Amino acid sequence: MIGQRSETSTVSGAHFAFTDRWGGVSAVPYEELNLGGAVGDDPDAVRTNRELAAKALGLDPAQVVWMNQVHGPDVAVVDGPWGSSEIPSVDAIVTVRRGLALAVLTADCTPVLLADPVAGVAAAAHAGRPGMIAGVVPAAVRAMVELGAEPGRIVARTGPAVCGRCYEVPEQMRADVAAVEPAAHAETSWGTPAVDVTAGVHAQLERLGVRDREQSPVCTLESGDHFSYRRDRTTGRLAGYVWLD
Fold this sequence. Notes:
Blueprint: E1 7-11, E2 14-18, H1 43-56, E3 64-65, E4 75-77, E5 92-95, E6 101-106, E7 110-116, E8 121-127, H2 129-134, H3 136-146, E9 155-158, H4 171-180, E10 185-187, E11 193-195, H5 197-208, E12 212-215, H6 229-232, E13 238-244
Parallel strand pairs: 3-6, 4-5, 9-12
Antiparallel strand pairs: 1-2, 2-13, 5-8, 6-13, 7-8, 7-9, 10-11
C-alpha cells in the first residue's frame, strides 16, 4: 500500500492521486516510495515502487504514462504508454483515452492534475518555477481545449509542493518571477524574498476560467512524509496521477 499520507479524490469519474514517501522498497536516502527513475536509486526498486503505487490505486502499472521532465512549456498528447519509443522531453501530457493514467514526478515543484470528465480529457503537468513562468499549465489547458474540454468544466488539483513561506529566492529572482506572474510574489516566514509557485499556477488557472480547483495543504520542505529536493538534495520523487473512468 502507498502511505497513509497520500491524497486521493474522485470527481465525476475523474480520479486524482498524490503519493507520499512511504510504502515502498527503496533504501536510504530514497526511502521508501521513490517513483523517480533518474535520481540515482536502484532501477529495480523504482520499478517495484511504481508497481506498488499503481496497484494500490487500482491501476495497471503498464498503463501509466511518465514524462522526461525538463522544466519547459512543451505538451505531448498521448494515447498509450511510450513502449519502446524514447520518452519525450515534455512537462505536460494530455489524453482522451479513458483508463490511461498520466503521471507527474515532483519533489518541491507543483504537480498539476486536470480533467474534464464530460469531454473525457485529462492532463498532468510539472510546474516548477521555470515551467510556471514559461506557461506549461496554460499550455496544457489549451491542449485540452483543442481536444474538446471546456475550462469551466475542468477540475484542477495541485499536490504537495514547497510553499511560499519556505521557497526562499534572491530578490531579483522574485522580481523576475512576479513580473510574469504577480500572484507568485511571496515572503518567507522569516521575512526574506520568496516565490509561491502553486499560487502562481492557481492564478493562471483562474484567468483561464478553471474554477474547480483544490490545493494540497502539504509543504514538501516542512513535511518529513514527503520528498524535498530543497531540503535533502539527494532524495526520491513523489508522483501525481490522473485518470478517467
